[in-house]
Design a protein that fits this description.
The chain has about 220 residues and is of the alpha/beta class. It folds into two domains: about 100 residues, Tetrapyrrole methylase, N-terminal domain (Cobalt-precorrin-4 Transmethylase, domain 1), CATH 3.40.1010; about 100 residues, Tetrapyrrole methylase, C-terminal domain (Methyltransferase, Cobalt-precorrin-4 Transmethylase, Domain 2, 2-Layer Sandwich). It contains eight helices and ten strands. Strands 3-2-4-1-5 form a five-stranded parallel sheet, sandwiched between helices. The chain has a five-stranded mixed sheet with strand order 6-7-10-8-9. Helix 2 links the parallel strand 2 and strand 3. Helix 3 packs parallel to helix 4 and helix 7 runs antiparallel to helix 8. Bound molecules: S-adenosylmethionine. The site of S-adenosylmethionine (SAM) has 24 residues, from strand 7, strand 8 and strand 10.
Amino acid sequence: METSLFVVPTPIGNLDDITLRAISVLRDVQVVLAEDTRTSGKLLKHLDIQKPLWSYHIFNEHKKVDEIVAKMKEGQRFALVSDAGTPAISDPGYLLVKACLDAGIKIECLPGPTAFVPALVKSGLPTDRFVFEGFLPHKKGRKTRLEILSQEKRTIVLYESPHRILKALDQFIDHFGPDRPASISRELSKKFEETVNGTLLGLKTHFTSHTIKGEFVVVIGGAN
Ligand code: SAM
């Protein structure tokens, strides 16, 4: 059976972080499904690839899935990309993958860039067992989630936005304690990449007096 959906990871900062296979798949498919057609258009232009780009994001995915699956059944090959990193990892993708599998359509996911792996590895915290929590709920359910996570023994990996990071660190200190080992990586693969390792309190002190810019991954050691 031919593959109809290729999930294609794209760079999280450094444009060189695209695999040779990702490039050849993007060249080969008939349509690229993109979270933001302008962002992916720039990447395709950089790679010198011209392809029809269809918009596919959290606000239209429920509406689009059936149409895409129908086209796949007619023999069209699609690549799914998000703005950065691996689709379906805190990005649209899950719904389409599930719909393809339910319809008996063959999918492939190329290995490639994603922000949480380099952040976890650079944290120096145990990598043998970890939980990926993506973005915590902003309001409803956040406190409950933090209470559950405070008992978690595995390393915890979270995504957080720059404008919420200081408040989030205060909440982490409240739930996990100030001395819990932790790490923050920002601007991974970019010019101003920075990883700060220490305790939750140490990170709060650091980021209170340093730049809070870029995208952040937070890694927290598990409970003893
Ligand atoms: N699909 C992406 C992946 O595979 O990592 C994640 C997309 S999610 C919408 C965006 C979040 O990923 C950011 O808020 C940040 O937490 C993290 N992120 C993405 N790029 C990053 C980078 N270069 N450095 C640090 N964190 C990054």
